[in-house]
Design goal:
Layout: H1 16-24, H2 27-47, E1 52-60, H3 88-95, H4 98-108, E2 112-116, E3 123-125, E4 131-137, E5 149-153, E6 158-162, E7 170-173, E8 177-179, E9 184-189, H5 191-200, E10 206-210, H6 213-223, E11 224-228, E12 235-242, H7 245-303, H8 308-311, H9 313-316, H10 320-345, H11 364-381, H12 389-429, H13 440-473, E13 479-487, H14 496-521, H15 528-534, E14 539-545, H16 562-579, E15 589-595, H17 602-615, E16 620-624, H18 645-650, E17 661-662, E18 669-672, H19 681-685, H20 689-700, E19 703-707, H21 716-720, E20 726-732, H22 742-749, E21 756-763, H23 786-789
Parallel strand pairs: 14-21, 15-19, 15-20, 16-18, 16-19, 20-21
Antiparallel strand pairs: 1-12, 1-13, 2-3, 2-10, 4-9, 5-6, 5-10, 6-7, 8-9, 11-12, 17-18
Helix pairs in contact: 2-14, 4-6, 4-7, 7-13, 10-12, 11-12, 16-17
């Protein structure tokens, strides 16, 4: 037998070109999807409001070099020694805090938003609003605004207001307090804007929407981004995205202003507390100074003293030097006592006073060493705890130095007392010379000394009070504005180019994915390429195209349609297929036509194959061997009686001539109908009469075309297939499942089906042949259907 040439690449997978063809055949899908996606993109761009980015830049000044506490005014006295370092991250949190956001909302009255109705979108207005609406008595939780207010100015002094779009409006004057039930509102005019509308001759209706203060503030916090320009700078960039750029700029500028005002209030509070502290001390010192001066006057009055210096100048001239030495020594002793008391009563962390003019050769060095250790300990405690080994060592060293200083003071005190006794001895020697000087001079000098001390402290506090007043007057803002809020003219969203490119991409990807998933999930045989790859060595004798509902289902005489040509090709291939097998036989060729399941078009193929062979001049009989579900009479026209194959098998005395019937208007074509449907089809086919019937028919006709039952559903075809010269196994494109292709291959392998050849039925024009690359037009041209246009 001479087989048809087989494709040497049958077992290979679909080539890249075949994959591409699957998409190219459906190019209208891509065009339509891109068109729909672009339409959706343009609609989105048309109806989506543009958003703009506003940016402001500020420099947060480091105030760490300035005193930030009430004791900062006394830094030159050694009472404070600290530096307030700005925690930059904390300042960023403050800028985005709830309190500042609420202050911005209140300052700009952001709880009220104004909208003007447009042909497509309602646009929000901010700077050029014709009026300002302020809620005088804010609504509480139980009385919220039922909705927006619709306000239409009718002049520069009057307007109409309504709470619902369809209700009747009321006339009001600008500046009136309007009670709306849930709260009282005040509407004030923006005269310049209203005059522009008056010149144009009309005023637009404005929708005023009132929102909750906390909600608006929360929206501002979420919309504003605060970030550092660089990692090592205190320059902050504030960014806000909004559909109204002028509103975003106003919010950023107001936020910076509120931040500066808040920081200035904090520092002014410190200065005011310092001023209060100084004033309190001045009042106390004033009272003490007044008491000392009053005591001095009373002392003079009681002792009737005028100028002690003039009266005792001569008497005390010789004793001045001794008195001065005595006073110096007593002063030094008193200072030593004071220092000792201070040292005994103070804590281990207090600094000791220096440069008192005593003990220069004794304990002054120890005091300096002690103070250095205290300051070193305080510096370590700023970054560690008292359990730090360095701090513990310093504590021990401080204790030792403290003991040494105290011992040095005791030695100095003993030395001073010795010196004092020597001075007293000298004074006794000259006591006779100054016995007339009243002992009260000593008390008077003590009073004068107290007066000088109080007066010096009083003058010092007055100086600090003036310095603090100057600081309070010249407080500078904490944030320096590097760039005031500005916005770009180009919106950041929606980005037209990206959306259009995305729409084109989506328009291309969606049908591509659909086609890919359809191919991935498709379990139907679609074209001959799949059959060639998975059909083993079984030849494909023909492809029958898909026909429309209005197209005829049977090949006509002199028919030039694609259907007729496909059956001519099938019959030609069939002749080559069976030529070698029967070339030495005188009988005709028996051709069985079957399928796997019902509905694959085996009867349609049988009828048209028989007609095509008959039109070629051969004598042909078509046999209805599907005795369970006969359908052959639907295709071949003729005045046929209802007796045929079944009757021949049942009645052994009958011959095929008793049941052969010619087809109407069809030369060379005869038909042997199925006959009555029997209750035992399989038993009938197992009789020897079946062999006799096919032998008789083969001896009378050139071709015996047998329409058999589906091979997978019933056993009839397998029982009689041994009488076939060739078996045309019908597959229906788009109907036969891919896994069913294994059934004929398995039966061919085990010998149940002989000489199988595939016929692919109902192939769409897009899949016809090898991708319809070599198409040829027969008959009249027909308008393409939507399935052809979209590659169905």
């Amino acid at each position: 037998m001479q087989d048809l040439p087989q494709n040497t690449n049958q077992q290979q997978e679909t080539s890249i070109r075949e994959h591409i063809d699957a998409y190219l055949r459906r190019w209208p899908w891509f065009v339509l999807a891109v068109f729909i996606a672009l339409s959706a993109a343009f609609i989105y761009l048309r109806y989506t409001p543009s958003t703009y980015s506003a940016t402001a830049t500020i420099l947060i000044k480091n105030q760490g070099s300035k005193s930030a506490s009430e004791l900062g005014a006394f830094k030159d006295l050694g009472l404070v020694d600290m530096m307030n370092v700005v925690d930059f991250e904390n300042e960023k949190i403050v800028l985005n805090s709830k309190s500042l956001s609420e202050k911005v909302v209140d300052a700009l009255n952001l709880t009220v938003r104004y909208f003007v109705e447009g042909s497509i979108l309602d646009s929000e207005i901010f700077n050029n609003k014709p009026f300002d609406l302020k809620v005088v008595s804010p609504p509480d939780e139980t009385r919220r605004p039922p909705g927006p207010l619709y306000i239409q100015p009718i002049s520069t002094t009057q307007f109409r207001l309504k709470a619902k779009i369809k209700e009747k409006s009321d006339l009001y004057n600008f500046g009136d307090l309007i009670d709306l039930g849930w709260g009282v509102v005040l509407v004030t005019p923006n005269v310049e804007v209203l005059k522009k509308g008056e010149r144009k001759g009309y005023f637009s209706e404005v929708r005023a929407s009132i929102s909750n203060r906390e909600g608006v503030a929360a929206g501002i916090r979420s919309a504003i981004q605060v970030r550092s320009m660089t990692d090592r700078s205190s320059v902050v960039k504030l960014t806000m995205v909004s559909t109204v750029p002028e509103k975003a700029r106003a919010i950023l500028n107001e936020l910076i202003e509120q931040y500066n005002a808040d920081s200035m209030n904090d520092r002014n509070l410190i200065s005011r507390n310092t001023a209060n502290f100084i004033q309190g001390r001045l009042e106390i010192i004033t009272e003490e100074l007044d008491s000392v001066e009053t005591g001095k006057v009373e002392y003079k009055e009681e002792n009737r003293l005028t100028s002690i210096e003039a009266e005792s100048q001569i008497s005390l001239q010789n004793a001045n030097q001794a008195d001065m030495q005595q006073m110096q020594i007593e002063t030094q002793i008193a200072l030593v006592n004071t220092m000792m008391d201070y040292l005994k009563n103070s804590s281990d962390t207090d600094l000791l006073p220096t440069n008192l003019g005593v003990g220069k050769e004794s304990f002054a060095t120890g005091i300096n060493e002690y103070n250095k250790l205290i300051m070193e300990r305080n510096r370590l405690l700023q970054s560690s705890t008292t359990k730090n080994p360095l701090v513990v060592g310093l504590d021990k060293q401080i204790g030792e130095v403290r003991g040494n200083v105290l011992e040095s003071m005791e030695n100095t005190k003993r030395t001073l007392r010795i010196n004092l006794r020597e001075i007293n001895s000298q004074r006794k020697n000259i006591g006779s010379e100054i016995h007339q000087i009243p002992e009260k001079e000593k008390d008077f000098r003590s009073i004068s000394r107290q007066q000088e001390i109080k007066e010096s402290l009083y003058l010092y506090l007055l100086q600090k009070r003036e310095e603090n007043a100057i600081t309070l007057a010249v407080t500078a803002p904490k944030a320096k504005i590097v760039d005031s809020a500005y916005s770009q003219s180009i919106p950041i969203s929606p980005q037209k180019s990206i959306i259009i490119i995305g729409a084109i991409f989506a328009g291309l990807m969606i049908p591509l994915l659909i086609i890919y998933l359809n191919q991935l999930l498709d379990n139907k045989i679609r074209n001959r390429a799949y059959v060639e790859r998975h059909g083993g060595d079984v030849a494909i004798v023909g492809e029958i195209p898909e026909i429309g509902k209005k197209d005829h289902t049977l090949v006509k005489t002199n028919d030039t349609s694609v259907l007729a040509e496909s059956f001519r090709i099938l019959s030609t291939n069939l002749k080559y297929l069976v030529l070698d097998k029967v070339e030495n036989e005188s009988n005709g060729k028996t051709i069985f036509v079957t399928s796997t399941v019902k509905g694959e078009g085996k009867t349609f193929v049988s009828a048209n194959l028989a007609v095509t062979l008959a039109n070629g001049g051969a004598s042909v009989v078509v046999v209805g061997a599907d005795i369970r579900n006969p359908q052959l009479h639907r295709y071949i026209e003729g005045d046929f009686n209802d007796k045929g194959v079944v009757e021949y098998l049942v009645y052994p005395d009958s011959t095929t001539d008793d049941y052969l019937q010619p087809a109407n208007n069809q030369k060379n074509l005869w038909m042997m109908v199925t006959g009555a449907i029997p209750p035992n089809p399989a038993e009938l086919w197992m009789q020897d009469r079946a062999s006799e019937m096919f032998e008789e028919l083969a001896s009378k006709f050139d071709y015996v075309v047998v329409d058999t039952a589906p091979a997978m559903l019933v056993t009839d075809t397998l029982l009689i297939n041994k009488y076939a010269d060739v078996t045309i196994y019908t597959l229906r494109a788009g109907y036969t499942e891919k896994n069913l292709l294994n059934y004929p291959l398995d039966n061919k392998k085990n010998g149940k089906l002989k000489n199988i050849a595939f016929a692919l039925n109902n192939v769409t024009m897009a899949n016809f042949g090898y991708g319809n690359k070599y198409g040829y037009t027969y008959g009249s041209n027909k308008k393409k259907s939507w399935r052809n246009i979209f590659g169905g």
